[in-house]
């Protein structure tokens, strides 16, 4: 059998930008899908890929629903723009040659659906490490599983250093393979899939109230963000709009989570930078905040707090909703007070201790262009000066200033985490005041979410934007598509590690604040 | 098994693990996150670095399973991590137990068994101790591990949150 020949398709680079892409997609036939969805033929799909190169930041994700591949783009509203390509075989034209952020999704689709991207940048396995009971588990016809286990060790050679997936570090498992050139890292590769739980399949068939429990457990560090994004998608389908009090409570949970996650990241970076004192002080502050959360909500985490239609707090039967709102307001006020009291001192300690500041300056710079090209948003992008944050479009947040830094190196990222903690403290103070003043509007939760159709939701998590696309049939989840920042931060960490010492590579990875659990789904 | 014998000889670990309050040396603990939401792993991290001082109760976290006595597992136990957990256990010279921390590690918690997960350690082994919670609190983890290494003398407070296997 002769090898297939692919003819290059002329692409219209810099010919219309996003509007051009939108106009091109809208030329297609209207189809069932998330937001405004249009069916494209293969030729137009390739053209779309080329045009997307100029507006990479609009790219949200690439997913498969067994019979089609869906490219979802941001068009600046609650409704995304989707392009659907009918699959005529187990292949489709890749987008990653023009949109690097698509590579992760293409490799995921290959592992989960057995559909390959033709001409993709990297066709290697992403999630299937060989232990699955079936191959292509989400396809309509899964194949036999039980292939050889791949823990990354097979390809290790003298020049390569392999660590993980169990190396005593208390974090979600992944394997890190570094090819060294002398003392420096020539190439770094993160082998993923060890934390893959099949989240999409776990949620499939569940009612929204049960599925949101899984969404909240995609990653503990961005649990509230995943819950919120899922609920926005489910509410888009059901048409239910939570009341203002519920939205304010959601914002409190999201900001609480942001502070906890940033402090954990800063503590890890300080520990790796050899400053045990700074690390333990930051971890101590985080623990104090967790104790406040536990005292008021009964749990150390923010799981199961945001539900479709509102919020949930485990309270005794008969507790009035007003008391729940007061508890959330107290939580926000206590966080704001503690952060205001302790953060400046910790920030000074961070600056005056030689360890973190000296080691992090110039380490792993990811400039604005790098973040843009790789589809990275959140604090990593804001540390490079990109003033983007989806919270400003949510009325519940009101007006606030987005802190940004310059440079985009590990030092700037850490300063960004400090700045965002301070900003969250101010937001929490404001949210607490508004919660206290607000008169009762709608119930805190509307049970019985259902409906049929597609929904899309996003939320600003601690590491960046979390996007969810869900499809419901007869009130149950049929399809789930998730994008979270860790999926794109891991490839960025690998690329930034080239040419640095292994110790610096560890600092770069820690400063990006990603989670393998989130990325693996 | 030969490897285990060598390490046993090197560490001069007594054949019977002491069941008294005073331990001859800190008990080394190796933590494996077997693929979960990272919540319990973060709590173990909090236990190690947030002022709980596990060393004071005779626990020392290690970076390798070699020369450790206690295996702590968090996470739902994915099929990709099952051989890693097994390898860590095999590498321990004289393991005194395997502890499942968090609901996921006990029975999968919110995650059911599927193509990628085993839904908890139960599918592989009966854990020596189960410490529930979603996520498990550092204080509960410390109390449970501490009770285990002191010969299952579980206090009433600990018993409320810890189920000895």
How does the SSE layout of this entry go?
The complex is a heterodimer of chains A (521) and B (165).
Chain A: H1 17-26, E1 29-30, E2 36-40, H2 42-52, E3 59-64, E4 68-73, E5 81-86, E6 91-93, H3 102-113, E7 116-118, E8 134-135, E9 143-144, E10 160-163, E11 175-181, E12 184-191, H4 199-203, H5 208-215, H6 223-238, H7 244-272, H8 276-297, E13 306-307, E14 310-311, H9 321-352, H10 354-360, H11 368-374, H12 379-382, H13 410-437, E15 453-460, E16 465-473, E17 476-483, H14 486-496, H15 502-512, H16 516-520
Parallel strand pairs in A: 2-5, 6-7
Antiparallel strand pairs in A: 1-2, 3-4, 4-5, 8-9, 10-11, 11-12, 13-14, 15-16, 16-17
Helix pairs in contact in A: 1-2, 5-6, 6-7, 7-8, 7-9, 7-13, 7-15, 8-9, 9-13, 13-15, 14-15
Chain B: H1 2-11, E1 27-33, H2 39-49, E2 59-61, E3 70-74, H3 82-91, E4 97-101, H4 103-107, E5 129-131, H5 138-149, H6 156-161, E6 163-164
Parallel strand pairs in B: 1-2, 1-3, 3-4, 4-5
Antiparallel strand pairs in B: 5-6
Helix pairs in contact in B: 2-5
Provide a descriptive summary of the structure in words:
The complex is a heterodimer of chains A (521) and B (165). Chain A has 521 residues and is an alpha+beta fold. Chain A folds into two domains: 17-135, Beta Polymerase, domain 2; 199-520, Cytochrome-c3 Hydrogenase, chain B (Orthogonal Bundle). In chain A, 42% of the residues lie in helices and 16% in strands. Chain A contains 16 helices and 17 strands. In chain A, the strands form six sheets. A five-stranded mixed sheet of chain A has the order 1-2-5-4-3. In chain A, α9 (321-352) runs antiparallel to α13 (410-437). Chain A is globular and about 60 Å long. Residues 1-18 of chain A have low confidence and may be disordered. By secondary structure, chain B is α/β, with parallel strands linked by helices. Chain B has one domain: Rossmann fold. Chain B has helices at 2-11, 39-49, 82-91, 103-107, 138-149, 156-161; strands spanning 27-33, 59-61, 70-74, 97-101, 129-131, 163-164. Chain B has a six-stranded mixed sheet, sandwiched between helices. In chain B, α2 crosses α5. Mean pLDDT of chain B is 79; it is low at 6-22 and 152-165. The interface between A and B is large, with 56 and 48 residues.
């Amino acid at each position: 059998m002769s090898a297939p020949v692919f003819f290059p398709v002329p692409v219209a680079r810099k010919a219309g930008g996003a509007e051009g892409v939108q106009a091109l997609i809208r030329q297609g036939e209207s189809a069932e899908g998330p937001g405004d969805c249009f069916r494209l033929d293969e030729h137009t799909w390739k053209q779309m890929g080329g045009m997307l190169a100029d507006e990479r930041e609009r790219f949200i994700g690439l997913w498969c629903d067994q019979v089609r591949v869906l490219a979802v783009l941001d068009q600046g509203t609650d409704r995304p723009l989707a392009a659907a390509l009918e699959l005529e075989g187990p292949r489709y034209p890749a987008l990653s040659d023009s949109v690097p952020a698509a590579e992760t999704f293409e490799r995921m689709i290959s592992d989960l659906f057995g559909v390959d991207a033709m001409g993709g940048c990297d066709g290697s396995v992403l999630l299937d490490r060989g232990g699955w009971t079936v191959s292509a588990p989400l396809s309509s016809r899964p194949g036999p599983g039980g292939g050889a286990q791949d823990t990354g060790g097979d390809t290790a050679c003298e020049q390569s250093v392999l660590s993980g997936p169990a190396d005593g570090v208390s974090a979600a498992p992944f394997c890190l393979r570094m090819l060294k050139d002398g003392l420096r890292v020539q190439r770094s590769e993160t082998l993923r899939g060890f934390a893959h739980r099949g989240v999409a399949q776990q949620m499939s068939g569940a009612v929204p109230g049960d599925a949101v429990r899984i969404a909240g457990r995609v990653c503990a560090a961005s649990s509230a963000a995943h819950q919120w994004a899922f609920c926005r998608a489910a509410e888009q389908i059901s048409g239910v709009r939570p009341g203002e009090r519920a939205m304010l409570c959601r914002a409190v949970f999201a900001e609480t989570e942001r502070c906890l996650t940033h402090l954990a990241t800063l503590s890890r970076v300080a520990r790796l930078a050899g400053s045990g004192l700074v690390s333990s002080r930051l971890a101590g502050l985080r623990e104090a905040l967790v104790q406040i959360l536990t005292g008021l909500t009964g749990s150390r985490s923010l799981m199961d707090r945001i539900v479709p239609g509102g919020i949930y707090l485990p309270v005794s039967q008969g507790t009035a909703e007003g008391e729940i709102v007061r508890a959330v307001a107290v939580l926000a006020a206590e966080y704001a007070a503690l952060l205001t009291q302790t953060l400046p001192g910790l920030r000074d300690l961070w600056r005056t201790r030689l360890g973190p500041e000296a080691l992090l300056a110039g380490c792993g710079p990811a400039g604005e262009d790098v973040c843009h090209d790789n589809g990275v948003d959140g604090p990593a992008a804001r540390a490079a000066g990109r003033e983007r944050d989806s919270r400003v479009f949510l009325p519940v947040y009101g007006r606030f200033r987005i802190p940004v830094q310059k440079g985009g190196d590990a030092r700037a990222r850490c300063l960004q985490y400090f700045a965002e903690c301070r900003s969250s403290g101010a937001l929490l103070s404001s949210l607490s005041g508004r919660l206290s003043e607000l008169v009762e509007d709608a119930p805190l939760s509307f049970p019985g979410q259902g409906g049929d159709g597609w929904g899309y939701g996003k939320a600003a998590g601690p590491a960046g934007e979390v996007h969810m696309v869900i499809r419901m049939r007869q009130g149950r989840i049929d399809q789930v598509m998730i994008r979270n920042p860790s999926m794109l931060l891991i490839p960025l960490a690998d690329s930034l590690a080239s040419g640095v010492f292994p110790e610096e590579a560890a600092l770069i990875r820690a400063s990006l604040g990603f989670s393998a659990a989130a990325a693996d789904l | 098994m030969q490897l285990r014998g060598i390490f046993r000889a090197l560490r001069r670990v007594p054949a019977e693990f002491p069941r008294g309050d005073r331990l001859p040396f800190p008990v080394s603990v190796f933590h494996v996150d077997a693929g979960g939401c990272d919540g319990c792993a973060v709590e173990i991290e909090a236990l190690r670095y947030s002022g709980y001082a596990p060393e004071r109760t005779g626990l020392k976290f290690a970076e390798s399973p070699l020369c450790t006595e206690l295996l702590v597992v968090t996470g739902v136990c994915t099929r990709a991590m099952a051989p890693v957990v097994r390898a860590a256990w095999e590498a321990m010279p004289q393991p005194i137990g395997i502890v499942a921390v968090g609901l996921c590690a006990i029975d999968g918690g919110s995650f059911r068994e599927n193509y990628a997960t085993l839904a908890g350690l139960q599918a592989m082994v009966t854990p020596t101790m189960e410490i529930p919670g979603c996520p498990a609190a550092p204080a509960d983890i410390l109390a449970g591990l501490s009770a285990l290494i002191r010969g299952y003398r579980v206090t009433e407070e600990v018993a409320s949150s810890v189920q000895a296997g």
